[in-house]
Amino acid sequence: MKDARIEERGLGERNADWLYRGVWKVVSKAFKVPESPPELPSLPHDTLRSFHPSRRFLDYLKLYFWVGAIVFGVPVLALWLGSFIVKWQFGVILTIPVLVLIVLPNIVGYVAIHLRYDTTWYVMNARSLRCRRGIWVIVEHTITFENVQNIHIRRGPVQYLFGISTIVIETAGASESGESSRFSGGNKAILEGLENPDEIRELIMERVRRSRGTGIGELPGEEAPAGSMWRPDHIRRLREIKEEIAVLGSRTLSGR
Length: 256
What we know:
Layout: H1 2-7, H2 11-31, E1 49-51, H3 55-86, H4 88-118, E2 121-124, E3 128-133, E4 139-144, E5 148-154, H5 157-162, E6 165-171, E7 184-185, E8 188-194, H6 197-212, H7 232-254
Antiparallel strand pairs: 1-2, 2-3, 3-4, 5-6, 6-8, 7-8
């Protein structure tokens, strides 16, 4: 599928992707970056779902990359061309340093945004969500659905143009301030670059409701829903325990 998308792009993009794949192999081996999504402990009947941000998120990052390259590169080129007017020999001397100053940061920046995209993973099972990102420092953050208090969708004007959104999942004590809130940390998880935020949000909400509906005080039906951590025999036994507790409580109140 990835190769098919590459064929649809221009020659420059194909060459850049070919170069990036070579860089990725070197970087992933050097820093031992796992190519597979993070593991999330699951029961045999859990439904596990793992995904990257949308490919549109990569295009969104490239827009900021090119804007930054233009903002930085145009003044440097202007000063370099002006040096020819002052003294052409001076301009010739500056040619190689200027090219290095413009080209090298662009190469590093292009590789960096691709690495950011390829190393970002979101993994969900029936009970929790895990986010992972990073090359030099790999950061993994896990939240449990039963502790989720709020889920909301963010979409700025530029994100709207690219058809992507960000989902913010907050648990008890989550705060909008702090350095860790940029991606995830503490009591918050942030899922960036999603082109189907409503679907993902509803999927998370469903698992939140399900995780809160599997306690002793509020048991699911005899047939456990798909992805539930409870088997039918578990549910029957928990119901028996609940009934025994109720009988003991009534006897205590009646003084027997």
